[in-house]
Structure prediction request, 369 residues.
Amino acid sequence: MVVSTSSTASSPPIPKGGGGGGRRQPPRVLSIPVRSSRRRSLSASGGPDRSGVPVPASRDPISLPRPLTSADLMEPSGDGLKVAYQGCPGAYSEAAAKKAYPSCHTVPCEYFETAFQAVEGCLADRAVLPLENSLGGSIHRNYDLLLRHRLHIVGEVRLAVRHCLLANQGVKIESLRSAMSHPQALAQCEQTLTKLGIEHREAVDDTAGAAKLIAEQKLQDTAAVASSLAAELYGLDILAENIQDDTDNVTRFMMLAREPIIPRTDKPFKTSIVLSLEEGPGQLFKALAVFALRKINLTKMESRPHKKRPLRIADDNCSAPLKHFDYLFYVDLEASMADPNAQNALGNLKEFATFLRVLGSYPIDVSEA
Prediction:
């Protein structure tokens, strides 16, 4: 069990809000509304029968729509799907969205919360957002947003991150004084950047946004840490490839939808839950025991302060009451909610947990990152 502490044409972007900025402010995604296409009418009249009476086309079995199957709900092809991600075109999140739904139309969003809102407001069908990185750890903001919004995790996708050092044409590494990128990308390349003599760091909202800003402002002393696709999109030179400090740099993304999928037992599944417990000795042990006794493996556990109840006052026979942080626990189980064993475990957990919510039950990504 791991315990953590811590392109095809894209659709128009979805902004959360406006905001100005100076020369080195993070780039903002433009505000262009996304229009939903109207449903086509399924009714049509056929030709006349022998008596001359028109026969509705629905009597013809060939024209009837095929009923959806559980396979359709499990593995959508992505044709026509609008998938939201955080960042500018060329971001790693866009590559993850394309891996999850190869034929989708990607929708760039300025913030993580904007992507959640885009799906909730039917401006996008899915969202693909990072949850954890093998080097940088968990993306806590998205854990908090999972609880704030009523979306469901319907899948996961792992993406190998290969950072490149990008600069305007003609710029040499020796003339660089600063590197610009997302804070996690900068942290993942810290040692390499230092060896290259680049000491100063500038954090922005996303990796592709850094590449875009450097290209637009024609900076000569600053490089971006971003993908090779970002270099292609924004006309930058690749000065160095694979500059991450660890070659095993993988980000796990979650796929979000308005409705959950139908869980199955014919393939490896994972179930994500969030819970809170009463204060007291052995409470967490009891929670873990409901899974251990049923031989259900836990692949991740993440604790986050309970924002609605940040402090809990307890009288421990001291002169003054003590204040303790109240926590939520995010847990990933190697089990499907279609498995009676998992259902019994959660039923047992509900007997003493003060809060319990299933965030999603979805297939495990077994493909290569």
Q: What stands out?
A: The chain has three domains: 72-160+245-260, 164-241, 263-363. Residues 72-160+245-260 form a domain with the D-Maltodextrin-Binding Protein; domain 2 fold (CATH 3.40.190.10).
